[in-house]
Amino acid sequence: MSVLKITEVSKLFGATRAVDSFSLTVEDGELVCLLGPSGSGKSTLLRMVGGFAQPTAGSISIDGEEIIHLPPEKRPTGMVFQSHALWTHMNVFKNLAFGLKLRKLPKDEIDRKVEEVLELVGLSGYGGRLTHQLSGGQQQRVALARSLVLEPKILLLDEPFASLDQHLRERLREEVRDIQQRLKITTLFVTHGQDEALALADRIVVMRDGKTEQVGRPDIVYREPATPFVAGFIGTMN
Ligand code: ADP
Ligand code: MG
Asked: Best mutation site among 42, 44, 191 for ligand 1, i.e. most ligand atoms within 8 A of its Cβ?
């Protein structure tokens, strides 16, 4: 069953076509990687799904309902940015509880949900820590937890581990895959790293100049690149 349907979405910044009549359908529980070089429109596309940018044209629907008129907080999406954008003046618990308080959940339920999700990301017992006392990897775990605690229908991850070193990035990648499969949460994962996309994705969308260059299973994209561009890009493992 398809959950997310992006239909001929474009985004212009002046004369720049950041996203150019892009279409994609994502199935329930699928992890799709948007892979492409810097400037290919990945972030702009993700931001439009999350409600942080408005399409110039096109339609985005979730479970058959058009969402482009909805602000981010009314969308069934949760977004994790490359720079974690945590609230540094709040401890980990408060970062996670904030959105639940806005939803007016009772305190014991908030406590339970926060503890559950901290456990899920491997940060049990970290609720009282201030976020600036945490390592970069731990901060990204908190950012992921802050999205997950609101139980989004679709998780949007924009190069969430790009600022971390290779070893940590690979570890967090495995953890995200594990969490994604346990929760069966539909996920769009943006990356410019071929290795990351090949390791994570159920399907890869290779982007170039705001358009789709190829869509397919990682093994197919790897073995049978549809264009010289895909072959060149996938071939240069980082
Ligand atoms: P990616 O995430 O793949 O690196 P982006 O979506 O960030 O690509 O950018 C796609 C194109 O849109 C680039 O040419 C970029 O310079 C341009 N762009 C992105 N955001 C803005 C903005 N707010 N204002 C003007 N141009 C932008
Ligand atoms: Mg980007």
From this structure: 44
